[in-house]
Design brief:
mainly alpha, 3 helices
């Protein structure tokens, strides 16, 4: 079977030459993007739940209170 010369880094997803995998260091920005990509469905579900909450009576009241508190401190 043919083995690729490259393999993905398990921490950041970057293609790394198999022979130099030990020398690879992850770029923090790429690692964050890779982790967020893996969590995309959870992030999407959170956003939907948050929007639903903000539209509820309790959420609208809390948003109003937060805006009022910010205006008072300025």
């Amino acid at each position: 079977m043919f083995l690729s010369r490259y393999l993905p880094c398990p921490d950041c997803g970057e293609s790394v030459v198999r022979d130099s995998a030990e020398a690879h260091s992850c770029d923090p920005g790429r690692r964050a993007d890779y982790l967020m990509f893996g969590l995309r469905e959870e992030v999407s579900a959170f956003e939907a739940r948050f929007e639903e909450y903000v539209r509820s009576p309790v959420g609208r009241f809390e948003a109003w209170m937060a805006a009022r508190d910010v205006r008072r401190t300025v």
